[in-house]
Design brief:
Number of helices: 14
Shape: globular
CATH architecture of one domain: 2-Layer Sandwich
Distance between the termini: 63 Å
Largest sheet: 10 strands, mixed
CATH class of one domain: Alpha Beta
Structural class: alpha/beta
Helix content: 25-40%
CATH superfamily of one domain: ANL, C-terminal domain
Radius of gyration: 23 Å
Number of strands: 26
Length: about 500
């Protein structure tokens, strides 16, 4: 299989004059971008960063970030991206854990880098005159370019993503060139991307969705429109101005665009393909998006950093909540909760843990320096995802949540997602999250946290749930009205914050 450097060269050779990357007023063709990639690769090599080294990158989605990613692929450097909002202790941890040779950062991260004890002794490359840098990124463009072909092969490590670490220290996920390329090829096929498409590059590059958007556009000589920080109004303006043809976002970003006052007046007709991942999309939002965009393709993509794609549903509107069936490079099963064997299969409609075959072309081979995590998740050649779900009578997969999020009330296993899907359809509900709070009698009680769209009270919501087919034991026993649902930077609900009481009450809500 080709490595990623040679993959980039394919597009340079096929479409040298096609616009490849856009960042504000900057527009680079593939030939121009290749020149900058080669220059940055040469600059890194001159600084002593080379094959097999980790480069910790703390940047937003800007042209410098995308260029660094490709430069590392040519040079054989392991790009190791980190959330640009990272705190000093997170930077320290990831620097020490990865053994990074150098650090690249921007002004938004300068304060955290300055407070990082680990960064002080490292080569620090600053983008846009970031304070505290020992070398300016711009200087990388001034020296001799790499001048030779790609220095990495398909079996070399391309990047290392860090998991979100919501339940402990982040885990490094090393991924090889061949695994990354296989994932990007499957992404192109499963989303029916055509040559020359254009995507909004807003999903962060420290997240697998952002990386996949970048790589997939290169495979089809497409255009990647950088958006450093998400803003719904700016996103809509870019979609119109750049004639964006596909979107691949977490549900939260779709929600925010639909809610923006500019949505009705912007021309979004060029967007013909919608994809979402990273978190479940509740029925109400899915139906609103279908009505607003009328897409040709509406893809529910289910996967992870470790194994990019588990399952694909190319018609999300036909069966809301359904993750579909095994993707091109995957085999999936649902095994009984608590089982360690991949052969302990759950029956149809029985909720269990979702697992996937590690022999798949997109699958990683194990966590970075974490044998404890490997022992927990890698068993008998299968990756135990920690996600719960079930197959329906048609053999389609439904993802119901995380094993750790499962609510056990009165001996019954209750999935928060089932309840959230029902409540999301109420016209007074803007967003909803469900969690299990400790209860002396039941062990845990079901509590719904509601961000309101209009005046609504607990009694009305309870009556609404009673009128649906939601089983009585799943019905929320309490409703808490909040100003915002706590989420991670990529839109995942942080139920642990709800359980801990880390939220702001909506003081305008009334009880009935």
């Amino acid at each position: 299989m080709l490595d990623l450097g040679r993959t980039f060269l394919q597009s340079v050779e096929r479409s040298p004059d096609a616009v490849a990357v856009v960042d504000g007023p900057l527009r680079l063709t593939y030939a121009q971008w290749h020149g900058r990639v080669q220059a940055v690769a040469g600059g890194l090599r001159a600084l002593g960063v080379g094959h097999g080294d980790h480069l910790l990158v703390v940047l937003q989605n800007r042209w410098e970030m995308t260029t660094l990613h490709w430069a590392c692929q040519f040079l054989g450097v392991i790009v190791t991206p980190l959330n640009w909002r990272a705190k000093p202790d997170e930077i320290d941890y990831c620097l020490a854990d990865s053994g990074a040779k150098a650090l690249v950062f921007e002004p938004a991260a300068a304060e955290a880098v300055a407070a990082s004890s680990g960064a002080g002794g490292l080569l620090r490359i600053g983008v846009q005159h970031a304070e505290g840098a020992s070398v300016a990124f711009e200087s990388l463009l001034e020296g001799p370019a790499l001048g030779v072909g790609p220095q990495a092969g398909a079996d070399d490590v391309s990047l290392m993503l860090y998991t979100s670490g919501t339940t402990g220290k982040p885990k490094g996920v090393p991924r090889r060139h061949r695994q990354e390329r296989a994932a990007a090829l499957a992404h192109v096929a499963q989303n029916l991307y055509r040559r020359g498409e254009c995507t909004l590059g807003v999903m962060p590059m420290y997240h697998t969705m952002g990386v996949r958007s970048l790589l997939s556009m290169a495979l089809i000589d497409g255009r990647f429109v950088c958006m450093p920080k998400f803003d719904a109004g700016t996103a809509l303006a870019l979609i119109e101005a750049e004639r964006v043809s596909n979107l691949y976002l977490v549900p939260t970003l779709y929600h925010d665009m639909l809610a923006h006052p500019d949505f009705a007046r912007r021309n979004i007709s060029t967007v013909r393909k919608l994809g979402f991942a990273g978190a479940p999309m509740h029925d109400a939002l899915l139906m609103r998006l279908d009505e607003a965009f009328r897409p040709e393709l509406f893809v529910n993509h289910y996967g992870s950093s470790e194994v990019y794609t588990f399952a694909i549903n190319q018609d999300a509107r036909a069966k809301p909540g359904c993750a579909g069936r095994a993707a091109l490079n995957a085999r999936i099963r649902v095994v009984a909760l608590g089982a360690d064997s991949p052969d302990a299969l759950a029956a149809p409609f029985e909720e269990g843990q979702i697992i996937t075959d590690l022999a798949g072309d997109e699958a990683f081979e194990g966590y970075w320096k974490r044998p404890d995590a490997d022992a927990k998740s890698l068993k008998h050649g299968w990756y135990f995802t920690g996600d719960t779900g079930y197959f329906d009578a048609d053999g389609d997969l439904f993802v119901s949540g995380r094993v750790d999020d499962m609510i056990i009330s009165g001996g019954e296993n209750i999935s928060p997602v089932d309840i959230e899907s029902v409540l999301s359809l109420h016209p007074g509900v803007d967003e909803v999250a469900v969690a299990g709070l400790q209860d002396e009698r039941w062990g845990q009680r079901v509590v719904a946290f509601i961000k309101r769209k209009q005046e609504i009270g607990a009694e009305a919501l309870d009556q609404y749930c009673r009128a649906t087919d939601l089983a009585n034991f799943k019905r929320p026993r309490d409703y808490v009205f909040v100003r915002e649902i706590p989420k991670s930077p990529v839109g995942k609900i942080l139920r642990r914050k709800l359980v801990a009481g880390d939220y702001e009450i909506d003081a305008t809500a009334t009880l009935d």
